[in-house]
Amino acid sequence: MQGKITESTIKKLQAATKPYELVDSQLKGFLIRVQPSGVKTYYFTYRNGAGKRVRIKIGKVGSVSVAQARDLADAHSAAVVQGKDVQSDKKDEKKKAAELADRTLDKFLEKHYGPWAVLNRKTGQKTIDTIKRNFSEFFPKPLHEISLLSVERWRTDRLKANIKPATINRDVTTLRGLLTKAVEWEVLDDHPLRKLKPLQVDSSPKVRYLSASEETRLMDALTAREEGIRAGRDRGNRFRQERGYELLPNLREVVYADRLMPMVVLSLKTGMRQGELFDLCWKDVSFDESMITVRAEINKSNKTRHIPLSQTAKQCLQYWQQQAGEVEPDSLIFPAKDGARLDNVKRSWTQVLKDAKISGFRWHDMRHDFASKLVMKGAPLNTVRDLCGHADLSTTLRYAHLAPEHKAEAIALLG
Fold first, then answer.
1. Taking the CA atoms of the chain, what radius of gyration do you get in angstroms?
2. Residues 107 and 255 in one domain
3. Are 73 and 27 in contact (CB under 8 A)?
4. What's the whole-model pTM score?
5. Which of 15, 23, 161, 273 has the maximal Cβ count within 10 Å?
6. Total Cβ atoms within 10 A of residue 2
7. Confidence (pLDDT) at 121
């Protein structure tokens, strides 16, 4: 049977008692085979150099579109015209893929996925570290032996260890991403976690932000920390002076003793992510326009966004720039002591929270604090979304209950 293979003609093809084929009238060698079970499969046929008729399976209807199947058949046809034995090449590729599939998870991560992730993902190294930290028990296994059941057991053990479902879901996502690439690279025929559903989590988690009292205690603790650093420098310089050593810069003559306080102020007043803050350069700040630009390459959503600077945030940055002296536009605003990119400020941040007697508050919660305070002041949710750089409005909606007009409207319903 012959005719043009299209979406409409495929729908008309009914299962028969015996298999039959529809040969495309436009592209030589392109056909679709219909089984008695109703399964329809695209194929490409040709004669190789020995004159033998060869058939290549392209894919099943439903998993491959007509356009995709025709493109693949056309590519095979072009290769045949050039004198290539497509089926033989395909067998060689499958053999290589099978050899790769026999490699263990740790080898695939080390040789293939790891290097790719570092080059193509902003958080590539973090992803690699997460896989190494959480899935070492799977490392000796070949990829095709990582089963749905084994991952389910792993999740159960984690739950028993009181690991939060949201954390488990994030960890599984990293492994799922690796296996997805293995399928794309034809190392695996099918994704072993395709049917794995994420653990249920609270879709509207409680938003953590600072109360007025907590914010006051946080600033007091930061101020006390600054005074402690200055006092330490004073003692150090007295020691150096007594022994005739060169004195270190006097911290009484600058606004900030170190970078932590301006970083906290900027986080609270702009809602920037910690990673964005670490990557922020002086060229991203416009004092004339009172604006910070979060470049796409340092933004989680890969989209540039602009954040207006409040007077407090602007003045904070101006003071910090004065302390930095002559700075290059491409230089980091908050570099590490050696001038490289900061890795973390966990130790000093943890101590400040302890001194302020604030619990259950992470650095990232300053971003929630920024959004929450905006909403409570009456800022439209869409504006908050733009300022925070949320990829989806559903992320911003977690703050909707804080809007005063929403509360008023709800109470008004009672009459």
1. 30
2. no
3. yes
4. 0.61
5. 273
6. 10
7. 84
